[in-house]
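sorry for the late reply, my laptop died twice this morning and i had to redo everyting from scratch. anyway the thing you sent over, i finally got around to it. pasting the sequence first so we're on the same page, its 563 residues, then the predicted structure underneath. double check i copied it right bc i was rushing
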Amino acid sequence: MPETNDSPIDSLLRFRSRLPALSPQGLTLLACLSFTLFYNRRFWSAVIEAEPPTGLGDWGLLAAYGVVVTGLHLVVFLPFVNRTTAKPLLTALVLVAAAVSYFTGHYGTYFDTHMIDNVLQTDTREAGELLTPGLALYLLLFGLLPLSLVWGWPLRRRSWQRGLGAGAVWWLGSVVVLAGALLLSFQSLSSLMRNHHELRYLVTPGNAIVSTGQVMAAPPPLPEERLPIGEDARRLPRADGTPRLLVLVVGETVRAANWGLSGYARQTTPRLAERDVVNFPDVASCGTSTAVSLPCLFSPQGRDDYDERFTRSHESLLDVVQRAGYRVVWIDNQSGCKGICDGVERVSPSPDAHPELCGEEGCLDGVLIEALKGQVASISGDTVIVLHMLGNHGPSYFQRYPEDFRAFTPICDTADLAQCEREAIVNSYDNAILYTDSVLDGIIGVLEESQSLTTAMLYVSDHGESLGEKGIYLHGLPYAIAPREQTRVPMVWWASDDFLGSQRLTSDCLTAQRDASLSHAHLFHSLLGLLGVESEVRKDALDLTANCRAPEAQAPGALITQE
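ok and here's the structure:
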């Protein structure tokens, strides 16, 4: 046979000419089948884990489930498909399905409304850490390669009248097939979804589409000005006039399971262990993501009655404290305060001022110690400073600590966790906690040296993290199914004797409550108690200091104005 010197383009065109022309609906069916078979690995593994097939009938049920998943997508997409829209629509769907299936498959992510909120609120630095070579390769194989088929496949030409009729027949046929599959599998499928309702957040790409729609169909806009809470807030009188300083340190993605003070096999908190601190080992977070937990931390509502709209439309703990006469400063080494710090002083450490702690990836949390030193030098009245840490924000745990804190090895030195053994991932995570321990120790050191102030510190993490347990990584799972690794967080209290004395608080009383089951719901009310702020918004049942104060401190007194 004579040799040919066809170019790749010629070969591609010859291959395309051999493909049978499809209707837009037929091409959409192929795409939906592909989604079911190749983009739902996590969904199918979860279904098989929940209902292990033991016979031919069970495999038949799995096939019926596949028809249901395919049919649901097809019934939703077909009304938007014609010869003009088919390929652009399928392009968007394939790219969404590829990206979502990567994160559900590699990290065990569930795409519910909270995850969509996380995506929308993620800044470029956080997003950049997820753009790994593994993601790029996955998008090439499951995104660009299928799209070359989508755009290369010839579509059948029809008049608009025949195309409209064919579309109606396709849609009705899809409804009939879907209804039949549901009838055959309804009893088993309804039981499966009732007992494992989280599975719906794994059906790709429908999970991302439905959750995004729910987020976009949010209630009407919030009021331009946040509604007040705690308008009656006032400080209790005290004998001395020494300015008080309470530093609230909000941690990021630190879980109680790896916290040395809480019984972890490794001592990841050696410096705090040498200090006279109160560690609370059983604290439940309000959410499994910063977007939920951070606003909830500063709201009078707990997780059980948490209302995102209420929280976003009303003032926070910081406003109540400020109204009572405290100066409030928010110092951020994170991606922002999610609206909590609106109305109070805000500071972001300058990378140029601390080149030894900052780089292209951002600043290490040690920069917060330097920022605190600058604030302490100018304090003349009662003050609350919030330090928002970068903490253990994943997946780049290895970038959260300097080289000399590389105590546990080998480490995972990439954001693509799929490239690392689980041991290396845990080592990197634990090294980051070791650095957090050092930063907290440094903060306490600054407070101890501030002789002209009465000082205290409270540290609490916003949520936890999964590190490969049951194949799940990172965080953000729906709270109802989230593992304890994502919902249990460390909390630590330290105070100078002068601070306790000025508030007539007894250290023994607080220490006696360290083993109690607590939650983020206690923070709002306990901080008001620790600061001696009276208000109807404070609930005694959630205030850890309610029974720790001498009777004379609870007596009515004149309002204290800011010094």
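The chain is about 45% helix and 10% strand.
thats about all i looked at so far, will dig more tmrw
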